[in-house]
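Job type: complex structure
Entries:
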Amino acid sequence: MVTRATPSREELLAILDEVKDPEVPAVSVVELGIVRDVAATQVGVEVTITPTYSGCPAMREIESDIREALAAHGLGPVEIRVVYSPAWTTDWIGPAARAKLEAYGIAPPGVAERDELVSLERRARRVRCPFCKSSDTERKSEFGSTACKSIWFCRSCRQPFEEFKAI
Amino acid sequence: MANSALFDYLLRLGDDRLVLGHRLSEWCGHGPILEEDIALANISLDLIGEASLLLKLAASVEGKGRDEDVLAYFRDAIEFRNALLVELPKGDFGFTIVRQFLFSVFSLLLMDALQKSRNTELSGIAAKAVKESRYHVRHSAQWVVTLGAGTDESHARVQGALNDLWRYTGELFAADDVDRAVEASGDGVDPSTLEAAWRAQVLPVLERAGLQVPSAGYMQRGGRDGRHTEHLGHMLSEMQILARSHPGASW
């Protein structure tokens, strides 16, 4: 095998930034905050990831996509560590990724809840329609096509759309 | 002893969520409206995800080479440690919603307290579950009020469900040696410490829904010791048949 310089953390993150979320392919697993850390070790690469939801069915695919992306750059073997703490939050999604979500047709998340533990009412929140940008929208359900999304309807352009829900 | 108590405790946590998650999954394709079909499947997925993490941790604490799939699919009913509440058949939508509400508030309070577990894996699982449980509580509470304060028909159905389910709630808070051992070691939480907070959250919602809280009476129990209703065995036979017919299969 050809000996090569140990890749830096930045170089490794740039490679992982090519791995898109299988269910929301507009953004990468780095942008979503699923990748918590990556480092070159003496034997290969260690990637630390955290699931978005406990039952996220995309985790296994994300792991294999990460291995493939690193292998495509001649890197490996890859050791993937799954951590649960700190718990994933949509607050880790940066402004650039939020803009990509909206352009893809998914309203970006609001600020994660900080209010009392048991709250029976959802705080009122204006969500902008990702298609026509109207704020005349209503929530249809807090549960959508994937664990991370809720269903909305835009009264202005009469289109249903999804929101990446704050958690 | 310490490890064996923690193993039993984690089985209880995992089995509650596995069995309830499976019961909820029975709604998939049968929900009263599309949004609810999707919502119940989502909540089911969260619960089964939590169960998978908890049973994986249980298996590693046990240290006998089992994993979460072996625990889920290759134990018989007598070895399950879930509360009786979660194994009852799904009933109608009103029954499912009332059970979700009673369980979700309990689960939210429990997971919130478990964030302080000295076991860092359990505290991490709990921190995730808290976020998910908040959505579950809100969903079921809103439906309890909608149905309870809805038509005569919907009111009668959720009142009937509450009357049937109430006698299964005592088991959620009944503490035994396992609970006291994990509370003492700082790994777990004695569930009896959560009952007052649970009532403080549950009773106002039932009142808003115009529902009568059944009078305190005999409480059913036995699930934590493996004494289950006839319903669990039937549920497991369906849940486990694929894994048992094709051991080790993957796809």
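Summary: Chain B has one domain: 2-245. Chain B touches chain A at residues 35-36, 38-39, 42-43, 45-50, 52-53, 105, 108-109, 112, 120-121, 123-125, 127-132, 134-135, 137-139, 141-142, 201, 205 (CB under 8 Å).
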